[in-house]
Amino acid sequence: MAISVKQRAKVAAWVLVAAAVATSPITVSAATDSKSTTITTTVQPTISLTSGANVGLTILPDATGVISTVSNAITVSTNNSAGYTLGIKDSDATTTLADGGNSFATATSPTTAGALANGEWGWAVPSATTGVGVTGFDASYSVLNSSTTTTSKWAGVNASSGSNVNVKTTGTTATNDPTTVWFAARANTSQPTGNYTGAVTFTATTN
């Protein structure tokens, strides 16, 4: 069958269209997906405590009884946003200041301050100290040397196997936060001469 000029033209046109389609670039859109990542940094609490030098009391007794006092500086640093608690207790199983078979007993109560009897020792902080675990402390304390007139109040300590008594509690971070802790002993002339020693342990714990 003869192909007309018109039909040949149509065929040529379709060939050109097919060639154009075959040589045209094919565009593909990129697929995307997004997710977020949460970064959590946990800062652990740290705490450090420093204590002043060992302290010493000198007593010149009389028949009635006298009291001498001395202070020790405790400082605490912590990054804990809830603060810290400072505690005190004896460093061993006995709560005495001893020299051989002679001793000073710790004050009667570790939680209620009172006047020292002859042959007793104790500790104190001012009553306004935040979070102190003892009632009855005085508003302030000062250095006394064989005082016969003081009515100051003092607390005892628990043995090392017992619990800490709270000296101070705070509620925020601290840098070299100071606490002055006072110590005292009372004696009359019935107390034998000697160098009486004992030790307490301070512990700072993050809240």
Brief summary of the model shown:
This protein has 207 residues and is mainly β.
Mean pLDDT: 92
Output the CATH topology: Immunoglobulin-like
- Largest sheet strand order: 1-2-8-6-5-4
Beta-strand fraction estimate: 25-35%
Main β-sheet, in a few words? 6 strands, mixed
CATH architecture: Sandwich
Structural class: mainly beta
Shape field:
rod-shaped
**Number of domains in the coordinates?**
1
Uncertain stretches: none
Terminal CA distance reads: 104 Å
Using the coordinates above, name the CATH class.
Answer: Mainly Beta
Total count of helical runs of at least 4 residues = 1
What is Rg?
A: 41 Å
Number of strands: 9
H-E string: HEEEEEEEEE
Fraction of residues in H or I helices: under 10%
Molecular structure report:
The structure is a single chain. The protein has one helix at residues 5-23; strands at residues 47-51, 66-78, 84-90, 97-99, 102-106, 120-124, 165-169, 174-187, 200-206. Strand 4 and strand 5 form a beta hairpin. The protein starts with a helix and ends with a strand. The chain has one helix and nine strands. It is 9% helix and 31% strand. The mean pLDDT is 92. The protein is mainly beta and 207 residues long. It has one domain (47-206): Immunoglobulin-like (Sandwich), CATH 2.60.40.
